[in-house]
Amino acid sequence: MMQIFINGQPFALEDDFSVTAALMLFLTPEQQKTSFAVALNGEFLARENYPDTELNNRDALDVLFPIQGG
Amino acid sequence: MSLTIYDQPLSSRLLIGSALYPSPLVMKQAILASGAQVVTLSLKRQNPAALAGETIWQYIQECVAQNQGFLLPNTAGCKTAKEAVTLARMSREIFATDWIKLEVIGDDYNLQPDPFELLSAAETLLKDGFKVLPYCTDDLVLCQRLYDLGCRVIMPWASPIGTGKGLMNPYNLETIRLRLPDATLILDAGIGKPSDACLAMEMGYDGILLNSAVALADNPVQMARAFAQSIEAGSLGYVAGIMQPRQTAHPSTPTLDTPFWHQPGGQ
């Protein structure tokens, strides 16, 4: 088992979880269809790399969505 | 007349934010009424169940499509160059644009940009192919450095974000205009009323980016129109050539041959 953080919330996951698999757990089915972007440990992670990126213990994912801005 | 942002001509010199409106519908109506082709927006963490942002996102997309415009994502909330670079790259993926309004805040109280982190982030992003629109203070040397790095657009503040205090330091802003004649200068932040925007345009600024002044007005849609007209008026006035102020009064109406005895030779 390992612990990762998604938007600051801790999650206990089995080892060998990819970013894609973690996002499936975190995002609702509706949210999975919306626009979002991901950073892994503070670095941008391109969408095409989600499936091949394995998560490690204590990794932090940030999942960001469009909002209003000035 | 048109504004050019990194070789992209725009018919409106107003860039508008999408935050703080009383409702998504008012936001949409105000953006459309402003005629602005550039709409700023941002990225944020969201709870898994929340989908409220999706409506806003849809509305912003509709506004941009209707005004034949462009999205300008910002890096609001970032305090380091690293954070800003990461957020810019995330924004580029979602919004499919190289444009980024680069904000790196150095002071929580004034929301004053951190000039050192800003320069560092701008350098990285320009090398990464971004078209950087840096939000900065009205410091001439900072603006010059940003321009020398390759920022074709510079966005000095009028006053701190959201204060509505207008042009705090017209001397600095005029100096930046004079010293950077080839830069596209957009006044960003602190605009409170249409006359503030008009004044900046009369100084020769190329455009105005604002949000709170419209969103927090009693009638945001009407205020959006007011800003659009004031920016147009100020720009036209600058192009037309503003007369030099004079120390002494001069009669506007010719007095020669008018039948008044105050004329030379009269009684």
From TrEMBL, chain B:
GO MF annotation list: thiazole synthase activity
List of catalytic residues: 101
Domain Thiazole synthase ThiG: 5-254
UniProt pathway annotation: Cofactor biosynthesis; thiamine diphosphate biosynthesis
Polar residues composition-biased segments: 247-256
InterPro entries membership: Aldolase_TIM, Thiazole_synthase_ThiG, ThiG
Top EC group: transferase
Region (Disordered): 247-267
Cytoplasm keyword on record: yes
Protein's cellular compartments: Cytoplasm
Residues involved in 1-deoxy-D-xylulose 5-phosphate binding: 162, 189-190, 211-212
Main location: cytoplasm
EC identifiers of the protein: 2.8.1.10
Catalytic activity entry: [ThiS sulfur-carrier protein]-C-terminal-Gly-aminoethanethioate + 2-iminoacetate + 1-deoxy-D-xylulose 5-phosphate = [ThiS sulfur-carrier protein]-C-terminal Gly-Gly + 2-[(2R,5Z)-2-carboxy-4-methylthiazol-5(2H)-ylidene]ethyl phosphate + 2 H2O + H(+)
A biological-process GO annotation: thiamine diphosphate biosynthetic process
Complex formation: Homotetramer. Forms heterodimers with either ThiH or ThiS.
Protein name: Thiazole synthase
Organism name: Thalassomonas viridans
